[in-house]
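As a warm-up, study this chain.
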Amino acid sequence: MDSPADYPAPAALPVATVSDAMDRFGVAAGIRPLWPGAVLSGPACTVWTRPGDNQGLHAAFETIRRGEVLVVNGGGDETRALIGELVAQKAKALAVGGIVLDGAARDVTELAALGVPVFARAVTPAGPWKTGPYRIGGTIAIGGVPVRQGDWVLGDDDGVAVVPAERVGDVVRAAHRLLEGEAERRAANQRLVPRG
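Now compare it with the structure written out below.
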């Protein structure tokens, strides 16, 4: 899978099921959707930036492709928002698949209105620095999980998971098997009757 169109559509597979299909690895700890119902799915475009600085995000928008997910290691900083409404507008205009921040964001109401799926560690009204340094396209980490350029990143109300690019096909097949098993158990649960 090397194009955004090759990845499962957002909401096609639950993050929890994908994590189960990876032996419950791959979940980015502490990173949550900023508005209910936000979903994303696509290959990662990675950025590693100095905490609280978003110059690298703006640079990444010069090369990011339609459907890619901007994934940013911001050092887990919660004091400066790496994105807000204006950056989200840019992401929407470029048809970016979503934004995942190991850092903070702001303008939550506006992000929801724009419909840009943003997942972050925190929310703060304080704006970012714009001086760098940064790195684009290498291996980073978010929430304790490594992410390489092109790895599959997916998010829903439960959080964010990362699947290594070379494992996507196997994980998708395993996730579908798990969903089939869950459907069988759900049907069995509906047949239960109280005792006594």
